[in-house]
Amino acid sequence: MHARHVLVPSVFLFVVALCTVVLPPPRWPRSTSFFQSSWLPPVNRREHGDSADGHPCDYSDGRWVQRDGHAGAEPERQDRLRRDSIGRNQWESMVCMLAAAVPPTASASSSRVYERSGKPISRHKGYLAMVFADYNLSVEYYRAPMIVMVHRFPAANETGSGVRGAVRLDVLPRHADRWAGADVLVLNTGHWWNQHKTVKAYRKLFYGWRPLDKTMRIKDAFRRSLETVKDWELSSARFSKSYFFFGSYSPSHYSNGTWDTGGSCAGHREPLLTTNAHSGEEYSWMNAMIAKMTDGIKSHGRKATFFNITHMTELRPDGHPSGHREPGTPPDAPEDCSHWCLPGVPDVWNQVLYAYLLSTRYDTRRNNR
């Protein structure tokens, strides 16, 4: 895997101690279209594995194919609905896909697949760690929507300035120590980096506890946060053998308004065949910064990947919960056109992630230790 409605990205972590993981057959979504978009950073095809015909594979380039026997999207909207975190969407998808691959004799024993601290899977805050004991594997989720440290000031300390919290652009969250040493680390952020979620939400920006100008551009603040991630990753020898992925922006699909002004995606029932000429203008700068940051890490010999899911996701306005909200959601709550139904789009993200790992011969590492 939050502004409790919909704009909620997150950070999550895969800790993979055993190297061969078998996923179930993909639940591919429906209809057709290509995944490529002109504004996305170029992909170095030499880094990717070859396809069956010998040509390099670009996993951000493809088409949506309808699955046999599933003509419409509506039935899947009623399965698992989540609204707390886009990173949580992907983490839960990964957990379910891995659990489906566990042999029945192993999964029948609840003691072999469990949450490490006994927390319920419905927990929304903090972190979760699902353990697959038979495979020496844990899949962990950490909530850190801005990736860097966010402090909330106690009400008693608030002055008349309206500043309720602080974003430390130079420091990662306290639980970042737990991320170090993971075999596979997947980060994502984006939706919280806007004026509404930072300055207008009464959070002041700090760098080394020096307050920054409240009018500081969000782009500059985002860039500084990524520099902090890069410096942190390169400073630890524990990351020397890790596979580091930083996900691109996951588009929302609000029409006729924003999430808090009556925007909707309820009318979509099929994937788009193409995106319009202006799609991506709002967040292409984020992807460009993320790609530059991952390239910088890679230039130091680390295994870093810009995990490009933006365009394939842009084509799926039909995949959001929309008005189908979790039980107990107030009837007048905004539609959710930001997070994803499961099974759904995040399953494909994880299939792409798995393909990236296989293309780097990740499945052979156990034999080389």
Quick gist of this model?
Belongs to the PC-esterase family. TBL subfamily. It contains eight helices and 13 strands. It has 369 residues and is an alpha+beta fold.
Return residue spans where pLDDT drops below 50 for at least 5 consecutive residues: 1-12, 14-49, 70-76
Count, helices: 8
Task: Tell me the β content.
Answer: 5-15%
* Residue-averaged pLDDT: 76
Helix/strand-derived category reads alpha+beta
How many whole angstroms does the radius of gyration measure? Answer: 20 Å
The CA-CA distance between the termini, in Å, is: 31 Å
Strand order in the sheet with the most strands: 3-4-5-1-8-11-12
- What's the total count of β strands? 13
Shape verdict: globular
Binned, the helix content reads 10-25%
Please describe what this structure looks like.
- With 369 residues, this protein is an alpha+beta fold.
- It has one domain (86-360).
- It is 22% helix and 15% strand.
- It has helices at residues 74-77, 86-101, 104-107, 218-235, 284-298, 310-314, 345-359, 365-368, and strands at 11-16, 80-81, 113-115, 127-132, 137-142, 149-152, 165-168, 184-187, 203-207, 210-211, 243-247, 303-307, 341-342.
- The strands form three sheets. Strands 3-4-5-1-8-11-12 form a seven-stranded mixed beta sheet, sandwiched between helices. Strands 6-7-9-10 form a four-stranded mixed beta sheet, with no helix packed on it.
- α2 (86-101) crosses α7 and α4 packs parallel to α5.
- It is globular, with a radius of gyration of 20 Å.
- The model is unreliable at 1-12, 14-49 and 70-76 (pLDDT under 50).
